[in-house]
Design brief:
There is one protein chain. The chain is mainly alpha-helical and about 325 residues long. Helix content is about 60%, strand content about 0%. It is globular, with a radius of gyration of 21 Å.
Length: about 325
């Protein structure tokens, strides 16, 4: 029996009946030759991990725009924290950790530069149904691998596009990603806000701290344990009512005190204007986009192709591109 076969056999003996088994995946759009060592979800994890879009997450905003400090979260570190939380929950419930990890690593690949400010700009002025989760799916389906896409399994794609809002993934592992994403960003955004001087732990209402915990690790542990204990033995993923209510209240507190804080969002207007000028420029000059995006002009509207290009930019690349297009260089004597 192959290593892959042994792993699949172990899944059948060790995972919950509610788990999504690698051997029972609904498959890929384009059939591929089986791998002798990795399950299908492990292959998806590796495809995402080695993609260009994944590497670009290192230079994309989480909350604080292009932070100069070394210890603020970026979209990449957020993604890694989501993956770890998701694996912990999956292990506690005997669900498929590999599926959780693959989906977590891919869930934010479609995020724009400058975080949700970039997403809002595109929605308001160009493509009103643009969302980062749909764009993440477009990245793995069409834009990665020189326009061939990553050809991921249905379950990973389903978890990526349904990780936020009212959407509901078709697997328990996909449902875990939605919880893991929120657990990760709520807690690390508190950490970053405190580091930036926008918040103190004592500012968080005492009732919330009493339920969830005072420290970063305590809050994460409380939330994760609640999911594992409440979801054990059932075909669903949920928190206990008390912990869910406190988590929702903490999230609302962050929206009121951090996410719309004028200090944290001081550069958002500039970021939106920068992206708007880049968008307008490439709408008028689509031939100047890289070949990957020009090639899609045959099948897609120019707005869609420019959106793909702009949304794939890192904060740094967007700033550098803007500078090269719109900021004159100082003339220097060549002597």
């Amino acid at each position: 029996m192959s290593i892959k076969g042994i792993t699949e056999e172990m899944e059948r003996f060790t995972l919950s009946p509610f788990a999504c088994f690698s051997s029972e995946t609904r498959g890929r759009e384009h059939p591929v030759r089986p791998c002798e060592t990795r399950t299908e979800f492990q292959r998806d994890r590796d495809r995402i991990l080695h993609s260009q879009a994944f590497r670009r997450l290192m230079y994309k905003t989480q909350v604080f725009l292009a932070p100069a400090g070394d210890h603020y979260r970026t979209r990449l570190t957020h993604t890694l924290e989501v993956a770890q939380v998701a694996r912990t929950i999956a292990r506690g419930l005997r669900l498929n950790e590999d599926l959780c990890e693959a989906a977590a690593l891919g869930h934010d690949l479609g995020h724009t530069p400058f975080g949700h400010a970039g997403e809002a700009l595109i929605q308001d002025r160009y493509i009103d149904d643009f969302t980062h989760y749909r764009q993440s799916l477009r990245v793995v389906d069409k834009l990665e691998h020189d326009g061939q896409g990553l050809n991921l399994t249905f379950e990973v794609r389903d978890a990526i596009v349904n990780h936020t809002g009212e959407h509901r993934a078709s697997t328990l592992e996909g449902l875990i990603i939605k919880f893991a994403d929120r657990i990760a960003y709520i807690n690390h955004d508190i950490d970053d806000a405190c580091r930036a001087g926008l918040l103190t732990i004592d500012a968080i209402p005492s009732e919330i701290r009493k339920v969830l915990g005072q420290k970063h690790s305590e809050r994460i542990n409380t939330m994760v344990r609640s999911i594992i204990e409440t979801s054990a033995g059932i075909n669903d993923i949920k928190m206990s009512p008390e912990i869910q209510e406190a988590t929702n209240e903490l999230r609302s507190f962050l929206f009121a005190n951090v996410y719309v804080n004028p200090i944290a969002k001081a550069e958002d207007g500039k970021a939106k204007e920068l992206l708007a000028r880049l968008f307008d420029y490439y709408l008028a000059n689509p031939e100047e986009m890289p070949e990957l995006y020009r090639a899609n002009l045959v099948s897609d509207p120019v707005e869609r192709c420019v959106c793909d290009f702009i949304s794939g930019m890192t904060d740094r690349y967007a700033i550098e591109t803007y500078r090269s297009l719109f900021i004159p260089e100082v003339w220097r004597d060549k002597k």
